[in-house]
Amino acid sequence: MFDEDARPAPRGIAVGDDLADLSIEELEERIDMFKAEIKRVETALDAKRSGRAAADAVFGGG
Length: 62
Prior knowledge:
Number of strands: 0
Oligomer: single chain
Helix content: 55-70%
Largest sheet: none
Shape: rod-shaped
Distance between the termini: 66 Å
Number of helices: 1
Strand content: under 5%
């Protein structure tokens, strides 16, 4: 009827979450998710920097 080993559905990942009850596989998955998020943020940062550099070139800012 009830699977006592079943985990509740993941609620998302947050920095500072308690990691003590996570399995090795869950920890590895968190690392992969954080690495993907870092890449996404770096891409957004690069785009913002490119936009700023283009604006500075046109308007002489900087």
